[in-house]
Amino acid sequence: METIKNDSLEFALDFEIKGTNLYLDLARKTKNILGKQLFYSLAGQEVEHAKRIEEIYDKLKNDKTSETILPQSLPSVESVLKEFFLKAGSTDLKKDTDNIPGYELAMEMERKGYKAYEGFYNNAKNESEKKFFRQLMKEENEHLISLQNVYFYLTKSGDWLQEDESKVWSWMNF
User: Fold this and answer.
1) Residue 155: pLDDT band with limits 50, 70, 90
2) Which of 30, 57, 76, 79 qualifies as a cystine partner to 9, CB 3.0-4.6 A?
3) Helix (H) or strand (E) holding 114
4) Are the C-beta atoms of 106 and 23 separated by less than 8 Å?
């Protein structure tokens, strides 16, 4: 059985590490508590992605099949932020929206990651590879949706409310 190419795994690992570093840096720089929670949550997910990719990479280097090492879904960033949002109560979550360009940079990074994984998916040679890259695409898309929801909530609530219902976190509207 063919396995996932090492160059695509190397790219994925490097990309997730860069994402972790970006999110930690953005979390450190922002004063907005909702943004800080979002960026730290995304950094944690990127660390988990990198760990799983590295495990797959190591197993493939040892000539083991990738059939048994597909990634499992992580808890959603939405669920983490929803809990945070509800606990915040009357706290002004729109205070200190100082790092709007950081959200834009992060959204662009997630779009690039999705497109790269989509390319790897399209070039995959077997179902195991397709499942792996499909999962990474799904998770990058969820990260993008998370960033978009917080970005629109903080900057353009009117535009945010007009977004596709499957993407909008309506619970933020309370």
Assistant:
1) confident
2) 57
3) helix 100-122
4) yes
Buried b (16+ CB within 10 A) or exposed e, 81-90: beebbeeeee
CB 156 within 8 A of CB 172: no
CB-CB contact of 145 with 81 (8 Å): no
Structure confidence at residue 174 (pLDDT): 47
Q: What is the pLDDT of residue 147?
A: 94
Q: What is the mean pLDDT of residues 73-102?
A: 82
Which of 14-18, 20-24, 64-68, 123-127 has the weakest average pLDDT?
Answer: 64-68
Q: Which pLDDT score is estimated for 127?
A: 84
C-alpha–C-alpha distance, residues 114 and 137, integer Å: 5
Q: Are 126 and 59 in contact (CB under 8 A)?
A: no
- What tokens appear for 27 in the block? 């979390």
Domain 6-173 is classified in which CATH homologous superfamily?
Answer: Ferritin, core subunit, four-helix bundle (1.20.1260.10)
